[in-house]
Amino acid sequence: MQELSLRDLYDGDFYHICTEGLEQVTLMKDLEDFRVAWNYLAICAWRTGVFVVAFVLMSNHLHILAACRNAGQVNKYIRSFKALYSRYLNKKYGMTKTMHCSDTAIYRIDTIQYLRNCIAYIFRNPLTARICSILDQYSWSSFHSCFSGVGKLEDGFPLCELSFTEIRKLLRVGANLKNCPLRVDSQGYITLSSFVHNDIVEKVFGNSGRSFMYHLGGGNDAKMEYELVHQPLVSVTDSDMYSLVSTYVANRFSGKHISDLTASDKCSILKSLFFNHKTSIPQLARIMGLPRELVKKMLLQ
Fold first, then answer.
1. 207 — alpha (psi -120 to 50), left (phi > 0) or beta?
2. Backbone dihedral angles phi then psi of residue 62, each to the nearest 5 degrees
3. Residue finishing a domain among 230, 248, 278
4. What predicted TM-score, i.e. pTM, was given to this entire model?
5. DSSP assignments along 136-161, one per residue
6. Exposure letters 157-192 (e unless 16+ CB within 10 A, then b)
7. Are residues 171 and 270 in the same domain?
8. How confident is the model at residue 236 (pLDDT cuts 50, 70, 90)?
9. Is 1 a domain residue?
10. Quick one: 203 and 95 in the same domain?
């Protein structure tokens, strides 16, 4: 495979977005919830000008690979999604500020290898969680649109042809989509081909479906975890990290100290600390006073 640079793929930056898994809350309970979340990803991407390259929706969290011009744009994208979906959850289930309780990690991707591993990591989420045994069995990811997959077969019809009332009923959003280029299929899902830039995925793997499936199917989760999460990070001293974590804990838990937190409290903030600071699993384990294997397990969820 001829090696590319990130600029060969897109004249901007790539970001891995992941929301923290909520231990006691299911964000997507039924088929309608998955469909609504799927469509909100597309609508918010169109509104903010973000390119969605790959995504997976899990019952209590999600992963997105996005391409855009700057970090401010990607932050606006995920904030708009969380605001929309929070309103939906509140209206349907009476769940208030649910998405606000889920921390979001956003990490800029700086190498082709990291990008490749990120795509594989996103698509392999249902396998890692043992929800399915093969990727084709999981419906709520953009895996199906890669390399002439089934997601490209359903062309759908333009959203702009629908009335405001029809859009509100179908998409659970009150918005003027008159100039929107998105299309919707017969099941009510915005088509992958109209909002996911899987051409970037295909270029990352040298336009080779065999290479793509080899990378996904032959993935060693421990190796992928190292290359995706550990390798790009630069170490911060324990003293500096302790100071950062102490400040974060005090702000998050109303003045509490790290030693005041329960194990559950500590686990609830691991992803936010890990993805937003230059740290590692061993260092987080030392700072938080948790077993290293528990930290690793929580970060992979």
1. left
2. -150, 160
3. 230
4. 0.72
5. GG--SBGGGGSSS-GGGT---EEGGG
6. eebeebeeeebeebbbbeeebeebebbbbeebbbbb
7. no
8. low
9. no
10. yes
Instruction: Provide the token pair at 151.
Output: 């997601």
**How far is residue 227's CA from residue 221's CA, in Å, rounded to a whole number?**
10
Helix (H) or strand (E) holding 192: helix 192-195
Q: How far apart are CA 33 and CA 172, in angstroms?
A: 10
Average pLDDT (16-33) is 79
What domain range includes position 81?
6-230
Q: Does 213 lie in the same domain as 126?
A: yes
Q: Which of 66, 213, 63, 205 minimizes the C-alpha distance to 135?
A: 213
DSSP label of 226: I
Q: Which residues of 212-236 are buried (b: 16+ CB within 10 A; e: fewer)?
A: beebbeebeeeebbebbbeebeeeb
225 lies in the same domain as 242: no
* Separation of CA 16 from chain center: 6
pLDDT of residue 16: 93
Farthest-apart Cα atoms in the chain, separation: 59
Q: Are residues 85 and 54 part of one domain?
A: yes
